[in-house]
Amino acid sequence: MKQSTRLIETEVSNTLLAAGLHANHSGFLYLKDSIILVLKYPYMQHQLTKKLYPEVAKIHKVSSAIVERSMRHTINSASKNGGIYNINYMLNAQYFNEKERPCNGCFIALIVEIVRKNLYELIASLEEQHTPDKLSLAKEIEEVIGSFTNNDIA
């Protein structure tokens, strides 16, 4: 596995954990894979039931309905524990009340934006170091999150 892929997966996991999600829920894995797919293929963010859920379901060998329901349960569980309120802090804005539960699509979109922001900050810090290995790592990460025209799964 490429170092850039590991960094992206780690950033997504850390962001989900910071948002109050529990890693022992299957919805956590489905959300993690969904966020990585939306980072690579942004058009999927607007095609949850047609593209995103079926793609994640195929990865995990389950149905799309199980993917959607597990994600909803995991987000709901986090919101009951007040973890969703942490998203407000990460985005430095008031998106949710303490008891509000975001829909799957809204949650995925916000987490994608948080992860993308953090990865661009990482790219900037890697580029400041001016070493060939850090520059190539920064370029690899940027290729993954900057591939807005890539339609491999379309």
Task: For the structure shown, list the relevant keywords.
single chain; 154 residues; mainly alpha; 7 helices; 69% helix; disordered C terminus
Structural commentary:
The protein has 154 residues and is mainly alpha-helical. It is 69% helix and 0% strand. It is built from seven helices and no strands. It is globular. The chain starts with a helix and ends in a 9-residue tail after the last helix. Mean pLDDT is 83; it is low at 148-154.
SSE topology:
Layout: H1 3-18, H2 26-40, H3 48-60, H4 64-80, H5 85-91, H6 104-128, H7 132-145
Shape: globular
Strand content: under 5%
- The stretches of 5 or more residues where confidence is low (pLDDT under 50) are 148-154
Q: What is the terminal-to-terminal distance?
A: 24 Å
Please give the share of residues in helix: 55-70%
SS-derived structural category: mainly alpha
Using DSSP, what is the number of strands? 0
Helical region count? 7
Largest sheet: none
Order of helices and strands: HHHHHHH
What value does the Rg take, in angstroms? 16 Å
- Mean residue pLDDT: 83
